Amino acid sequence: MSGREVGGEFAFEFAERVDRVEPSATLAISNAANELEAAGHDVVDLSVGAPDFPTPENVVEAGTDALEAGHTGYTSSNGVPELKEAIAEKLRDDGIDADADEVIVTPGAKQALYETVQTLVDDGDEVVLLDPAWVSYEAMVRLAGGELSRVDLAPYEFELEGGLDDLAATVSDDTELLVVNSPTNPTGAVYSDAALEGVRDLAVEHDIAVIADEIYDEIVYGVEQTSLASLDGMADRTVTINGFSKAYSMTGWRLGYLHATGDLVSQAGKLHSHSVSCATNFVQRAGVEALHNTDNAVEEMRAAFESRRDMLVDLFDDHGVDVAVPDGAFYMMLPVADDDSAWAEEAIQEAHVATVPGSAFGAPGHVRISYAAAEERLREGMQRLFDADLLG
Ligand code: PMP
Ligand code: GLU
Q1: In which band, very low, low, confident or very high, does the pLDDT at 8 lie, cut at 50, 70 and 90?
Q2: What mean pLDDT comes out for the span 187-211?
Q3: Ligand nearest to C-alpha 243
Q4: SS3 372
Q5: How much distance in Å is there from the Cα of 239 to the middle of ligand 1?
Q6: Of 16, 55, 164, 363, which one has the fewest beta carbons inside 10 Å?
Q7: What pLDDT does 173 receive?
Q8: Ligand nearest to the CA of 106
Q9: Residue with the nearest Cα to atom 1 of ligand 2?
Q10: Strand, helix or coil at 258?
Q11: Among the atoms of ligand 1, which is closest to the Cα of residue 111?
Q12: SS3 of 105, please?
């Protein structure tokens, strides 16, 4: 039954699965910041992870040209051939033996992850996350009915290499799926080759499928990012996820993809065709331009994030705040009070600085800041936290 009478009025009865999850914490805080701003407050919003740069001009042009040229209908469900080929080329550059037929183009990487989890996880299946982990993995697994096991990397400064023994003690032949996200949201950690090889050995030993979410792969600082699917033994057990939101500052365009070998694409493609039909036609055309002609713009944004990271690391050093220095993405975890949710509430209400509580990522005692914000806003935000005695 999907409804019942309450005092003569109809009320929906909700499916049990929606009770298993909360709204996205990152988006909830960003909404709270928007409300404060609408009420006339100057909020330094370091909550949501969205680059503060415009989408590169040539990509916008490719999108508007495509719109004007009439690319406004449905496309093949898995994506237009030019984009799937450009994605396969990019993956081959990353050392993955990819073919265009092994790609599904999705409205955002989030949808690619959602489809993958729905395709692989049955009721009661064990899925292993490395904490701190991005908020939506847990929700997606719960919606699919999976059971979560979590490995806490906080004791190892968020580095996976130090936590490999803990991972080995957690996974077993019963583990269905492991989610690896490097560069990592929310810590900015970039896993070393030794760490990724450790994951590979465990995945092979216990026959585990792996999601490699590499959406921050273009945003690294002086280190190399290795694609998990490029390692020996991983090609057939890895679903590689990526998207255009971060590297090309295209969050609102909603464009992402998954790549996997074997039958995964035909199985996930069923969900794809019954849920979204296809990603937006003219957006896919802009995606081809993004993959082919944005090297300079991507490098400019990467360099700006790096200099902001350096500025923050120096600032925290001066104030005696002990942070793990991120090698990638545009996030940093700050050690705060045990009750990080209360701390974040005080920071937004009193200092008008929006951060995301670490507990949402499985890292209590911390908050995440996004430094995809202008340098003067970052300085202003941190100064407010120091002045309010919330930091340092
Ligand atoms: N993976 C990670 C780790 C993320 O931080 C995000 C947030 N944007 C996504 C996937 C989804 O990105 P999008 O749907 O915008 O492509
Ligand atoms: N992934 C970004 C973040 O973590 C955007 C918001 C979201 O999708 O969660 O802030």
Answers
A1: confident
A2: 98
A3: 1
A4: coil
A5: 15
A6: 16
A7: 98
A8: 1
A9: 49
A10: strand
A11: 14
A12: strand
